[in-house]
Amino acid sequence: MNSARFFVALLLLALAGCASDPAPHEQLRLTEQALGQARAVGAGEDQGELTLAQGKFEQAGAALTAGRHREARMLAEQAELDARLAEEQVLTQKGRKQVAELKRQIGALRQQLGEL
Amino acid sequence: MKGWPVFSFGLLCLASLGGCATSSPETLRALDEARAELLAIRTEPAVRLSAEKDLARAEESLARAERFSGYLGSEDDVLHYAYLSRRYGQIAREHGAQRQAAERLVELEKERDRLQLALSEARLLNAEQQGEWLEEQLLGRTTTETERGLVMTLGDVLFDTGREELRSAATRTVVQVARFLRLNQRRVVRIEGYTDSQGDDQLNLELSRGRAQSVKDMLVDLGVDAGRVQVAGYGEAYPVAENASSQGRARNRRVEIVFSDEEGRLGAER
């Protein structure tokens, strides 16, 4: 009987544990940082991933205020990676642009050589 | 038997927590997509080389999603970690693409440098051939060899009466001189201005010097080192024709460019 009571208490505690996730202040800070970094390299609102990240970040903030910590953490975690992806996409684009520019220069040089 | 209902309740709880096989189609699809994403990027060598950390995180997140799919009521977690896994995978893929672009850039930069070198060499060769031609043109036709060295005369028509500024028609000749000096780096020149006998002596001296200076300024503008260009104004001295006729006076109004020899030795000033 004692052990059964203990078991039930444990179960209730475990279920209650879900509701009392710690407030994900640190995660929200990380997400905000990732958003800032993405914008710093030139990610714009025309990029789907950045808009997504911003939206989730705002939702996470609202969930945090409402005390829904678990929801806030998940949204913020996703937003962080959305923002990071947006940043990386911009960097990839920049690299590709540099490659294209060099190819253009090389093409022009070849043409000049041909004309001599 | 008192403990039986409690025991059965506990059993029910365990069963519900362990209800793994009953995952929703949505979570199953999310898991499949995350697995497929990982599989696809693992085959890209550039990703493996440049995004080890993100790849590891993608795998970690996928493993977590799979663990959560073993518990009922954890659908949110499955979807969440499957999402994170895919994002890590996509980030890893971007890193791979960036690495490829960077490697390509290095190759292309080398190619561009080689081409630039080839082009400048080809141009130099061309310029040398052209230089010979220029030399013939400049030193053969329009110049005379005097005791002062090689002298090229820019006629009166290159200046408006009483003005120091070069007419645009003179520009072409001066451009040719500039090119000739660029190709013959050791040669130096002295630019000498002359006028006819009309007008005030002092003004003529100033005018002749001003005109010579205009030619020098233009040569310097065209990239000739100022130290290689001397300037002198002689006014109405040293006429080449009689000042009695207008044709004679026109010939006397002139700028002469005296070229040094190839070693840069220039005859003394008059």
TrEMBL record, chain A:
UniProt keywords, alphabetically: Coiled coil, Lipoprotein, Signal
Keyword Lipoprotein: yes
The keyword Signal is assigned to this record: yes
PROSITE patterns in alphabetical order: PROKAR_LIPOPROTEIN
All copies of domain DUF4398, residue ranges: 26-102
One Pfam family from the record: DUF4398
Signal peptide residues on this chain, from the entry's feature table: 1-19
Domain of life: Bacteria
Coiled-coil blocks: 69-112
Name of this protein: Lipoprotein
Native source organism of the sequence: Azotobacter vinelandii (strain DJ / ATCC BAA-1303)
From TrEMBL, chain B:
Keyword Coiled coil: yes
The protein's name: Outer membrane protein, OmpA/MotB family
Signal peptide range: none
UniProt domain OmpA-like: residue ranges: 146-263
Organism, scientific name: Azotobacter vinelandii (strain DJ / ATCC BAA-1303)
Cellular compartments annotated: Cell outer membrane
Membrane spanning residue stretches: none
Keywords: Coiled coil, Membrane
Superkingdom of source: Bacteria
Keyword Membrane on entry: yes
Gene3D superfamilies: OmpA-like domain
Residue ranges the record marks as coiled coil: 98-128
Lineage: Bacteria, Pseudomonadati, Pseudomonadota, Gammaproteobacteria, Pseudomonadales
GO CC terms, sorted: cell outer membrane
